[in-house]
Prior knowledge:
about 260 residues, mainly alpha
Amino acid sequence: MAGLITVVLAACSSTTSNVDPTAGWSAERLYSQARTEMAGANWSEARENLEALEARYPFGVYAQQALIDQAWVNWKDEEPEQAKAAIDRFMQQYPNHPGTDYMLYLKGLITFTPPSAMLSDLTQQDPSERDPKGLRESYEAFNELLRRYPDSRYAPDARKRVAWLVNTIAANEVHVATYYYKRGAYVAAANRAQSVITDFEGAPIVEKALYLMMLSYDQLELPDLRDDAKRVLDHNFPDSKYYKQGLDDPVSYWNPINWF
């Protein structure tokens, strides 16, 4: 008899633990609870309520807002892939939603400064090992925002970030070209530097790209191309600093994330 009671109690305990405390809640109540959890930075609990809301009430304004908030919660909880998935789902389901500009802005923020970029000075990672994919995704999202919603409240900040991203992506390309040059891959270095000059006209790092092209062509014993690169460098950057300091830039400890 005692054994039977134990089994029954265990079954009751198991059944109780599987009960969803939000079962039967309305969409309004689920969303209200999610907002309460978000205000307390309880990201996991907020996510559970938002996901339950989306699953149980897939139509209506609460479902739309739940997707927007899921993206934000996942971003704050350092779950970028889940955040991007929520944004992509939102964009597919509600392409003309008034909150689309915000979602594009958030998509740009998610990959704006990946952890690998912030830690690269500490890890001494070779530039060629850095993956600029996230920065390019950020650039594309902000650009789409500016193209589709130039008067959005998020547009001014997006423009500042795009300017930084252009310079950063161009600098990344020059870092890779420098990496190639120092290892004797002069053709690859010259080609990479040329792509920076072509694709990122006006970026400050173009000065270094021209200097690097000049050095690469000199190593390849191509005097005509070397002299052409030098002529353009001298015309656009008289007394270029790279003639004195060479390819190694001074160590910089600035953090671009403090700009925004």
